[in-house]
Amino acid sequence: MLVNGHLIKADAANKVTGSWTPESQTWFVEGFVTLSAGRNIVRLEQPQAFPHIDKLLLTPVDAAAVPGDQIADGKSAASKLIPSLVQQWAKGLEASRSTPQSIFTAWHQFIASKSLVADSSAPHNGVARLLADAQLTSLAELANRYEKLFAEAQQAWQNLKATPEGKDAQALPDPVLEPFRSLLQDPKGLFAVPADIETAFSPETVDQLKAGREELSRRDAAVPQFVETMSVVDSTPENLKIHLRGSHLTLGREVARQLPRILAGEDPRTLTEGSGRLQLALAGRSRSSFNEPGDGQSNLAMALRSRAGSVARQFRPTGRTAIASCVTGLAGQRVHRKREQP
Fold first, then answer.
1. Which residues lie below 8 Å from residue 220, measured CB to CB, with a gap of 6+?
2. Are 221 and 248 within one domain?
3. Is the residue at 341 inside a domain?
4. Total structural domains in the chain?
5. What range defines the domain where residue 42 resides?
6. In terms of C-beta distances under 8 Å and separation of at least 24 residues, what long-range contacts does 78-81 make, across chains too?
7. Is 66 inside any structural domain?
8. Same domain, 170 and 271
9. Rounded to 5 degrees, what angle do the CA atoms 289, 294, 299 make?
10. Over residues 300-308, mean pLDDT
11. What is the pTM for the complete model shown?
């Protein structure tokens, strides 16, 4: 919830009422704010699922009856915060509450007891280094020490990557600074760019982004529309199991990739590279054993006739029955294929 462009509450309307219907509607006090004379703008933002809100109520209250730290004037540092980033951090801190190894253990300790205690069983959670030689007096002081450790981790990482032996490093050798470095660079971590980051941009920057996007759309629209067609490409070849009766639901044993016996004879060589398409095409250049150069399609056709005739003689059919038997013989061969992508 923002008033006149200033963040008043990062988690407004976060209560559960029980349903979306009117009988479950409930009033909640979201905050106290000092309004200026004249026009004021109350803005509700939610980059994801927006809550169901029926009414907003503004009612005057006696400022003397409200604690001073609960009245927002829109001029504090909180007014510069990005709501979704605040929520992101709030969820992250809450999730780390029960993890002693978390680098936010010191934060939870100070909130609970106003002091820090280093735990020897968790030496890498940063508490000892944040504590240094003196206890803290406020959360602001603790936040400053966190800031220094984050900066130290970032500098250590830059120094490491600048060395020949550290250019391929995946982590810092310092077990305390490494979690700080990892959190800083995690694209999905607490420092991830929020969905509503542009709400923090200046009007000039927003205008520049808008103009750039319009120019990009204009250029995209100017790209010629080429004719598209489907194609196949070999990925990683693999053997398949025999499809019993042609069904992929009833699989037999796995057979190595090879040319069909109707083409290659009773002892076809196993294919170890590629899917077999190229080998099948090259097989058309062979006169008989598919190992001697031939004259292309005519040789493949001749080989097919020769093999089909061999199958026909084996079954000794006549007339149309011979053709049916040849087809049956072809269908009975081991058929190999690979998964293809368009």
1. none
2. no
3. no
4. 3
5. 1-81
6. 78/7, 79/5, 79/6, 79/7, 80/7, 80/200, 81/7, 81/10
7. yes
8. no
9. 75
10. 55
11. 0.46
